[in-house]
Specification:
The protein is mostly helical. It has one domain: dinb family like domain (Four Helix Bundle (Hemerythrin (Met), subunit A)), CATH 1.20.120.450.
């Protein structure tokens, strides 16, 4: 594997699940959150933690699809970008959606690991930016939403 691909995977992993100097990554921000907490909304028409986690899963899928040329419509749930979550508040449903996030991360990681390093400077399918910037972008996306989740956790009502 090339040094460039290894670096991209390291950045991607640090933003999602590997220890980082900056504080919690996305998976760390989600750790220990109950289904009830994940479903709590800070106000009308505001996203909850559950929706943010599911949104992150969708965009890992979307980036993988763009990098590999996979057809649209293969995400396990119908829809795109933001999904109204939860359908029903249960620990099982919350764990299943967290599992989907982990699966989408692993699939994206696998797609990046299989890339030809020469394709990193090519434009991402359907985009004006390069594959390498798209990969940096999805890592930044994880960190952005990790920060949102950390703020929402501070706003959660006391039990």
């Amino acid at each position: 594997m090339s040094a460039e691909i290894e670096l991209l995977l390291s950045i991607l992993d640090e933003a999602y699940e590997k220890q980082a100097w900056h504080g919690p990554n996305l998976r760390g921000a989600l750790r220990g959150i109950s289904a009830e907490q994940a479903a709590w909304r800070p106000g009308p028409d505001r996203h909850n933690i559950w929706e943010i986690a599911f949104h992150a899963a969708y965009w890992k899928y979307a980036v993988r699809r763009r990098l590999t040329g996979e057809k649209r419509g293969s995400f396990p749930v119908k829809g795109s970008n933001w999904f109204n979550k939860p359908g029903s508040v249960s620990e099982k449903a919350w764990r299943e959606d967290l599992r989907l996030l982990a699966e989408q991360h692993a699939a994206l990681r696998e797609a990046i690991a299989a890339m030809d390093p020469g394709s990193l400077q090519e434009k991402t399918q359907g985009s004006k930016i390069t594959n390498v910037r798209t990969i940096y972008g999805i890592a930044a996306h994880d960190l952005y939403h990790a920060g949102q989740i950390q703020l929402l956790k501070r706003l959660l009502p006391e039990d």
